[in-house]
Design brief:
One of its GO terms (molecular function) is DNA binding. By secondary structure, the protein is of the alpha/beta class. Helix content is 34%, strand content 29%. It has helices spanning 10-23, 36-46, 62-67, 84-93, 104-120, 125-135, 187-194, 239-245; strands spanning 2-6, 28-33, 50-53, 75-80, 96-99, 144-148, 153-157, 161-167, 170-175, 180-183, 199-203, 206-209, 213-217, 223-226, 231-233. The strands form 4 sheets. Strands 2-1-3-4-5 form a 5-stranded parallel beta sheet, with helices on both faces. It has a 5-stranded antiparallel beta sheet with strand order 10-9-8-12-11. The chain has a 3-stranded antiparallel beta sheet with strand order 13-14-15, with no helix packed on it.
Length: 248
């Protein structure tokens, strides 16, 4: 895989280039750039398969660089200092990121995933979804979330998710069209990124979209009856939190 590296600090570029040479021999570094403008020129010149991109750079940020492009025919691995807002966006769109200083094992895993993704497609829809999320203050109802199943990455409108149920490190998403998607991530990751979209963690194993709650049943314990007919338990520890979220 041909790669371009963009970071505003030379020692970061040198370090990443050395790590790739030693631990990811399948990656050939075609060019490195210290600013977004030069990096954009290299993207057009070298047509890389993979871009390692810093976010916070003087002049133009990494996000602004990507937003200036008309299409995304490469994979991106963001390499950045800790930024909670950016990391939430990365997780929402299911794109890879590495925190500085770069961990070798995580670097190798991210490169392997990028290779697999590259083999499956030319256009990077995950990156496009991330740019859509960052670029516009769109109505949250229209926002799509990337859900990685064992066969594909599905882009689902948040408003079409009724509830989520965990099973060990897997999460099942129930959708309005009655489809169910099994995703290879634990439910707590989705609680964190969906809480701003009206989702409530009512139980250790359940996360529900409150717009699909039909009623609160108390016949045999506390349960939320959803519009798809499912009855979701409300745990004792979550009871007051759920009441508050529903403005009881």
């Amino acid at each position: 895989m041909k790669a371009v590296l963009i970071d505003d600090e030379q020692h970061n570029l040198d370090n990443l280039k050395a790590l790739l040479a030693q631990y990811c021999p399948q990656v050939e570094v075609s060019a490195t750039a210290l600013d977004a403008e030069t990096g954009k020129k290299f993207l057009y010149e070298h047509q890389p398969d993979l871009l390692f991109l810093d976010i916070q750079m003087p002049g133009q940020t990494g996000f602004e660089l990507l937003q200036s492009l008309s299409h995304y025919d490469f994979e991106v691995i963001f390499v950045t200092a800790y930024d909670q807002h950016a990391i939430q966006a990365f997780r929402f769109a299911a794109v890879d990121y590495l925190l500085k200083p770069v961990d070798i094992t995580l670097l190798q895993s991210a490169v392997q995933r990028a290779m697999k993704q590259r083999q499956l497609k030319v256009h990077n829809q995950q990156l496009e979804n991330l740019m859509h999320l960052l670029k516009t203050q769109q109505v949250k109802e229209d926002q799509c979330i990337a859900l990685a199943t064992t066969k594909e990455t599905r882009f689902v409108r948040v408003s079409d998710i009724i509830c989520c149920e965990s099973s060990n490190n897997y999460t099942t998403f129930s959708l309005t069209d009655e489809e169910e998607l099994l995703v290879c991530k634990p439910i707590y990751e989705y609680e964190d990124i969906l809480k701003d979209y009206g989702f409530i963690r009512c139980h250790q194993s359940h996360l529900v979209n409150k717009k699909y709650i039909r009623s609160w049943k108390k016949e045999y314990g506390d349960f939320l009856l959803l519009t798809n007919g499912k009855e979701i338990p409300v745990s004792r520890g979550k009871k007051e939190e759920v009441k508050k979220a529903l403005q009881f």
